[in-house]
Design a protein that fits this description.
The complex is a heterodimer of chains A (about 300) and B (about 80).
Chain A (H helix, E strand, L loop, with lengths): L1 H4 L3 E6 H6 L3 H10 L16 E5 L5 E5 L4 H17 L2 H4 L23 E9 L14 E8 L1 H5 L11 E3 L2 H11 L16 E14 L2 E18 L11 E17 L4 E13 L14 E9 L16
Antiparallel strand pairs in A: 2-3, 4-5, 4-11, 6-7, 7-8, 8-9, 9-10, 10-11
Chain B lengths: L1 H12 L9 H8 L17 H11 L3 E6 L8
The chains are: A alpha+beta (about 300), B mainly alpha (about 80).
Amino acid sequence: MQALLKQFVPVADEVHRLQKADSVEGEHFRKIAEQGHYGGRTQPTDTRQGIYAAAPSGALLASINTRSAERVVAMLETALEKWQQLEQGERYLPQAERPADGGWRWLQHYPTDGLVLRVHSRDLPRDDAPEDWRGDAANRDYAWLRAAEAATFVPEQPRVGATRPIPEALARRIARLHLVDNVRGQTSPFRAQDVEQATLTSEVVAVEGKRVELLLTGTSRCAQRGRWAVNGHEDAAKPKEQERGIAVTFHGRATWDGERFSAFELVALGERWGGTKYNRRDDDLAPTGIGYALVLAGDEQVAPAFVWEYGW
Amino acid sequence: MFASTTLLLTLAAAGQDLDATTFEHWRDYVVPAAEDERWLEVGWRATYWDAVLEAHELERPLLMWAMNGHPLGCT
């Protein structure tokens, strides 16, 4: 598999935006996708998610939507055979059709001088964990904080023992957009009215020059009630009364170097209950343990799953 | 206050306290191990159009992993 992959330029991206974007990159992706495995499909959804091998021109080589490594390998081999059969003129776009800017993206809001966190999520240990992939499922997201927001973690007079609650709006954003039950699959953000509690407080535990060590503690609770489906397309036509929620306590530590965080680790531990259409909790609606870890991201630039709710 | 107290009691009963003494244990439990992150070794580019341009430059075909929710983030 690794040897095969080296013969491609691999890219991963969010499909919904590309399906809808009125941009050069949106048009390019749709050209490929409509030749692929879901081309023209509208039911049960119009998604074009999957794996596509294509010439840079947009000529499809092969495509598939599967979790099977063997089937992906077969698809890649087919794609490379077709690539060899293409004429040079069929492989590439004319230079005039390759602008440097493919169109607007959320990455244009990437907080270069702010705080970018990876948000890991995982079920806590449980006796009734499924023996299939759900038993050790985990997910990740990204949280973006602008520089001014990151600075609100630091008490204005950073003396040992000084405390500062982060602004309510930021605590609520973290609670409703990042502490969601995405462990087994895609879910929805909580609505503003679903946030019942969201507090996060920093306390200075050490100071050395400009360097400030912080202890982070707090709690959050979001709960939503209403009618919706919890089993993909199986019950989509027959939504029932549901409740879902997340309640956690926070404990963390961070190091502020005077201008930005050089270390940031925040753990949230608690309970999740209920499910949403695609998060694979249809047979697991009762409360069980869930954990999150918010840690400094590397240089990867991936927009938060619900970035449109940021209001940026 | 009631909600947070109830939660603390629930976590404590389940042996899942979160405090200074258990913090590192739970951080390491939730953050994936290096072995679980090997899929990142593929070198996935995160921006579609940048990869299209790179594929032209390198004269290679494009491999696109497209999901509802960014595959390198939350999906």
